[in-house]
Amino acid sequence: HSRSGTGREAVAALREFGLTYPGAHLKAPWETHLDLAVRDKTFAYLPVDPQQFSVSVKLPHSHPEALTLPFCEPTGYGLGKWGWVSAQISGDVSASLLERFKDWIDESYRAQAPKTFVKRLAKSSGR
């Protein structure tokens, strides 16, 4: 279980994980992105064909902690001031880091999704 994966594998795993959420769908606002969205509101920016791992998520609660990590910075284009954090990792992504990124996708989804969808989560999966 502690196996690490390539950046490409990690991005694919996060995309697959994010699509399990109620109403989640893929959104391609730019050629280089295949993002996760709910009701057309992006909750995770993910590259299409990453040479290295990257993800941007909205972290209303954990962004101060996330920004203490060496591979994280406030998201560009002014999104950082709204709690968006971008992570970039060159090389492999460990299983424990992948789990952390899944937690961040969960937090970002909850921040962006309609309340009715978030309530559905609590009932169905115990998340």
Structure description:
The chain is α+β, with helices and mostly antiparallel strands and 127 residues long. The chain has helices at 7-18, 63-66, 95-112, 115-125; strands at 24-27, 35-38, 41-45, 53-58, 72-74, 84-89.
Short overview:
Helices cover 35% and strands 22% of the residues. The chain has 127 residues and is α+β, with helices and mostly antiparallel strands.
Shape: globular
List how many beta strands DSSP finds: 6
Q: Biggest sheet: strands, sense, closure?
A: 6 strands, antiparallel
Write down the overall mean pLDDT: 91
Question: How much helical structure, as a percent, in the residues?
Answer: 25-40%
Strand order of the largest sheet: 1-2-3-4-6-5
Task: Looking at this protein, list some descriptive labels.
4 helices; 6 strands; 127 residues; single chain; alpha+beta
List the topology elements.
Layout: H1 7-18, E1 24-27, E2 35-38, E3 41-45, E4 53-58, H2 63-66, E5 72-74, E6 84-89, H3 95-112, H4 115-125
Antiparallel strand pairs: 1-2, 2-3, 3-4, 4-6, 5-6
Helix pairs in contact: 1-3
